[in-house]
Design brief:
This protein has 579 residues and is an alpha+beta fold. Helices cover 32% and strands 19% of the residues. Strands 5-4-3-6-2-1-7-8 form an 8-stranded mixed β-sheet. It binds adenosine-5'-diphosphate (ADP) and magnesium ion.
């Protein structure tokens, strides 16, 4: 056995375990490749303050072979870094900082490149330019998986028509289908959560699709933060003590963590019975443990939250209005909260009704033509289209999460909520039976994914609690709208019944007592019926929904709420989320 022991490089490991990175089947491989490249493109553009203009082109070259090209208008990558970024796993600028970004592990685009290389033997091709004054660099790179190092196959300078940015091209064995969990769905959801980006997508078949920019406002620039003391584990604290450049324990605490000033640092040392002037490198394991407990016992301010840039309720509405055809939209953003020392923020958007389908609780089934023995009796209420089931769309730092739904904290919280309290049908432990799209976004400096493929969010109590509060806030607004709809419809029906009998009642009264003026009685009763059922005067459309003339209304159901006419023609640039 001794003769067989040897090191395993990360790339060898992930080449064998590519499913851990999300490359477990051909369809998903295509999605992951596009996703890694587009996530990087958006990250790069935002960090450089450029409004993202992204091109995604997928070309089919054989039955199961595709070429993926993604180009951005970001800041480009300096020449010396290009080989490492694309030819080395676990290499990146985002792992060692606590900052809100899409990538974090440094294992995204290089893994996609490695998958391409393994399945087709073709190098990953990169062209990158850092400024219009500089020339663009062209590279063809392979990964030496044995050593986890780039192998440069070709290197040249080239002319390109664009001033700055990066173009990545990967050839891979894959398959393409539309619908749920496809590249198309990923890009549609990306457009919803990133209304500041313009994306031009050329799928393998059919015409190019343009997702236009919905706003010229970039997400707020975020700051990287230092770790919060409550989030640090003992082993990590010991490592930090060894690696610090500070010479004093108090200095170490102040420079390596956020929310520790001189006074608090002294207090922690006092609690731990350690000398504030002790050299951090000489702190023994037992002392480190005392320090650890002293930190946990000291009252500290929550971490700063300027490191978070939520999408914002208004932009969520913009995104949903663009990609979901519904009648009622609402959104809400929670204040920042903290899990394991990491700040995070939850946002929820709901879209209800309209083209999303029938609600068994509120809409009657569409009448169907009756054939056979009942023929001739006209239309009766039949089964109509099947009742719709709610759908959850999940996002982490603006990236759509398309797989592992049931393992995700977001999904679990959605099904655990009692939606029946909000006027919707639901079986226990299931999604509500309603034409509803539930969008949930978690923004954080560190998203706790359950695996390297970044598909599901781990189940922290703090995160669950925030998701629940945001869902409840939106559900309350939806419930107010549904209540109103129900009331109006009920009052309308009531009035119809009154009006139907008023003439008969007046005639009967006159028959009993000749002195009664029949017409005057009709007028009086009609006025009374109208007053009693006043709510029905708000006009209802054919489907029993209140007709709202312009999209700015909805405010009466709560903040950040919009009601639209579902039958109005679509706005330019809008699309319908893949189903
Ligand atoms: N399109 C791009 N423009 C600029 N920099 C990029 C681009 N793509 C990748 N990078 C750089 O390469 C690094 C590695 O990317 P990646 O392997 O996807 O890991 P991660 O995004 O998790 O850091 C990134 O951290 C970033 O610094
Ligand atoms: Mg990445």
């Amino acid at each position: 056995m001794a003769g067989q022991q040897r090191d395993i490089s990360v790339s060898e490991f992930f080449a064998k375990n590519r499913h851990l990175l999300g490359f477990d089947n051909k369809r998903k491989a295509l999605l992951m490749t596009v996703k890694e490249a587009v996530d990087n493109a958006l990250d790069a553009c935002e960090e450089a303050g450029h409004l993202p203009d992204i091109e995604v082109r997928i070309t089919q070259i054989a039955e199961e072979r595709f070429r993926v090209l993604v180009r951005d208008n970001g800041p480009g990558i300096v020449k010396q870094q290009i080989p490492n970024v694309f030819g080395k796993l676990l290499y990146g600028s985002k792992f060692h900082r606590l900052k809100m970004s899409r990538g974090q592990q440094g294992i995204g685009i290089s893994a996609a490149g490695m998958y391409g290389l393994l399945t087709t033997g073709k190098s990953i091709r990169i062209v990158s330019r850092t400024s219009p004054k500089k020339e663009a660099h062209h590279y063809e790179i392979q990964i030496d998986t044995r050593k986890n190092l780039p192998n440069i196959v070709k290197e040249a300078t080239v002319e390109v028509p664009w001033p700055s940015g990066t173009e990545v091209e990967i050839e891979l064995v894959a398959s393409y289908t539309k619908g749920r969990q496809s590249v198309d769905e990923y890009l549609e959801q990306t457009a919803i959560a990133n209304p500041h980006a313009r994306i031009v997508y050329s799928p393998p078949t059919g015409d190019p699709v343009v997702f236009p920019r919905g706003t010229d406002v970039l997400p707020a620039q975020t700051e990287a933060i230092k770790p919060h003391p409550y989030g640090v584990e003992l082993g990590h604290l010991i490592k930090m003590l060894h690696e610090t450049r500070s010479h004093w324990l108090t200095g170490f605490l102040q420079t390596e963590f956020c929310r520790i000033g001189p006074k608090v640092a002294e207090e922690i040392c006092r609690r731990a019975r350690l000398n504030p002037r002790a050299h951090p490198k000489r702190i023994a394991r037992q002392e480190a443990e005392k320090l650890y407990h002293a930190i946990q016992d000291t009252r500290l301010m929550a971490p700063p939250t300027n490191c978070l840039a939520p999408i914002g309720a208004e932009q969520i509405l913009t995104g949903l209005l663009k990609g979901v055809k519904a009648e009622f939209f609402t959104a809400s953003t929670r204040p920042p909260a903290v899990y394991r020392g990491n700040p995070f923020q939850i946002e929820v958007g709901l879209a209800y009704g309209g083209a999303l389908g029938r609600d068994p609780r509120h809409d009657e089934a569409e009448p169907v033509e009756v054939t056979g023995s009942l023929r001739g009796k006209g239309k009766v209420n039949g089964n109509g289209p099947p009742p719709a089931t709610a759908r959850v769309i999940r996002f982490a730092n603006r990236v759509p999460l398309l797989y592992q739904q049931s393992a995700c904290c977001i999904f679990k919280t959605v099904i655990d909520l009692d939606w029946r309290r909000y006027n919707l049908s639901q079986s226990t432990g299931a999604l509500p039976q309603a034409p509803l799209v539930i969008m949930v976004h978690m923004a954080s400096v560190w998203v706790p994914f359950t695996s390297e493929s970044k598909e599901a969010i781990a189940d922290y109590d703090e995160i669950r609690a925030e998701i629940k509060l945001a869902l409840q806030d939106c559900a309350r607004k939806l419930s107010a709208y549904l209540n109103r709809r129900k009331q109006q419809k009920y009052q309308g029906e009531r009035r119809n019944i009154f009006l139907k009998y008023i003439a008969e009642v007046a005639a009967a009264c006159q028959a009993l007592d000749r002195r009664i003026d029949r017409q005057a009685l009709i007028d009086d009763l009609t006025a009374m019926a109208t007053k009693v059922t006043a709510q029905a005067d708000e006009v209802l459309d054919d489907h029993g929904r209140p007709v709202v003339p312009d999209t700015s209304s909805g405010a009466e159901f709560g903040e950040n709420t919009v009601v639209v006419d579902p039958d109005a023609p679509p706005e330019p640039g809008s699309f319908q989320l893949a189903s």
